[in-house]
Specification:
With about 240 residues, this protein is α/β, with parallel strands linked by helices. It has 9 helices and 11 strands.
Length: about 240
């Protein structure tokens, strides 16, 4: 079963204070890049894996989606999502994505934001999604970048010349990585960039776009404190087609 860290009260309080939790999609630095990958949603049946507070589900409906199914393992997340939505076309369900079950050809678009790096059996998730999407449908998702997930130390280090670096630790060794993020003992599943892409292809998807996200110059002008994020990619954004 997926670690349900979001139902830990300490973790949930810290997560709720993040800009992306308070401001929604506009508070997520990578959202402009994600949005550019999303097709016209008018009339489409959408599934959101790891829907969190429901920000994307509500946005999809604003774009004309016919229906949205939001899945999340966290009851805390789902309660917040339901409290902020009265749209009968949005349906939220608790679901462990390790045990994902979806109807065949039941959706025309799939989305996931920073949820799939918690999943151990990603092959099963991709295979079920491929079966659940209609031909030609798109699947857009983001994860923490594999480089970001495999640091030798949780802190930046300086070399002999005083330059900051982000040394890697056993990048090619895939599997669980335990980190202290908002709370101690958070488990994420590290896999290489090649594994992400090849697993999608093996499950029948065609890769349409891959982005190793970092802040743009325009974003840096507005947020100078993000300059460090240009040193190594923080997020991996992928668009695949059924």
């Amino acid at each position: 079963m997926t670690q349900n860290i979001y139902d830990s009260e300490h973790f949930f309080q810290n997560y709720s204070a993040l800009p992306r939790s308070r401001e929604g999609l506009s508070g997520a630095a990578e959202w402009p890049s994600m949005r550019a990958l999303i097709p016209d949603l008018r009339g489409r049946r959408v599934v959101d894996l790891g829907c969190g507070f429901g920000w994307f589900a509500r946005w999809a409906r604003e774009q004309g989606a016919a229906s949205v199914l939001g899945l999340d393992v966290s009851l805390n997340m789902l309660a917040r999502a339901r409290d902020t939505s009265s749209d009968d076309a949005i349906h939220y369900e608790q679901a462990d994505l390790e045990q994902l079950s979806l109807p065949q050809a039941g959706f025309d678009f799939a989305y996931s934001s920073l949820a799939l790096h918690y999943i151990e059996n990603i092959t099963r998730v991709f295979a079920i999604l491929h079966r659940a999407l209609t031909p030609g449908s798109r699947f857009v998702f983001s994860t923490e970048h594999p480089i970001y997930m495999a640091p030798r130390s949780p802190d930046w280090q300086r070399d002999a010349h005083g330059r900051e670096s982000w040394p890697l630790d056993q990048y090619l060794e895939e599997g669980p990585r335990v980190t202290d993020w908002l709370a101690p003992g958070v488990v994420k599943q590290h896999r290489t960039l090649g594994t992400w892409l090849n697993t999608l292809v093996d499950c029948g998807f065609a890769i349409r776009h891959v982005e190793e996200w970092g802040p743009s110059r325009a974003q840096l002008a507005e947020h100078p404190d993000w300059a460090r994020e240009r040193e190594r990619p923080m997020f991996l954004l992928i668009a695949a087609q059924r």
